[in-house]
Write a structure and sequence with these properties.
By secondary structure, the protein is mainly α. The protein has a three-stranded antiparallel β-sheet. Helix 3 packs across helix 7 and helix 4 crosses helix 7. It is globular and about 55 Å long.
């Protein structure tokens, strides 16, 4: 016999429900981005690097709210494909990441596919719910980062 609190996990667990929603969105974007040859998580990394131009792995991990080890693991395939460059910083202990010309071209190729997926999400949710979702997610990240 299961405890009642265990039964409520599926409907009330914030982590479970956010992860389920995240997986659905990731699958939608992965499918849309498939012709570009990059995945949704790779697209977001390339976009972040395009905005940052050149950034330490530690700083990029902080910006993306990722564990440094996980970020490094996610950057390796991009480096192997020649989409990014990872070089020593002024301090030899620091690694600096930047987008290559090939990476910029991949991002440009993927952008219209991303826009299609983004438009689909907004249309399915409706503009008001989508705006509320972004606002709530931003507030959640801010609140929990501060604690």
């Amino acid at each position: 016999m299961q405890d009642q609190s265990i039964k409520t996990v599926a409907t009330e667990c914030t982590c479970l429900n956010l992860r389920k929603a995240s997986r659905v969105i990731t699958q939608l974007f992965d499918q849309a981005l498939q012709p570009s040859g990059i995945l949704a998580n790779q697209f977001t990394l390339l976009a972040a690097l395009s905005l940052a131009e050149s950034v330490s792995i530690t700083r990029l991990a902080q910006e993306l709210v990722m564990d440094r080890t996980t970020l490094t693991r996610n950057l390796k395939p991009l480096e192997r494909q020649g989409l990014i460059r990872i070089e020593p910083g002024q301090d030899q202990r620091v690694r600096v990441v930047s987008l290559t010309e090939k990476g910029q071209a991949a991002l440009v190729k993927a952008l219209p596919l991303w826009k299609q997926a983004q438009t689909k999400v907004i249309e399915e949710l409706g503009q008001d719910r989508w705006q509320a979702l972004l606002s709530n997610l931003s507030d959640t990240v801010s609140l929990l980062r501060e604690s």
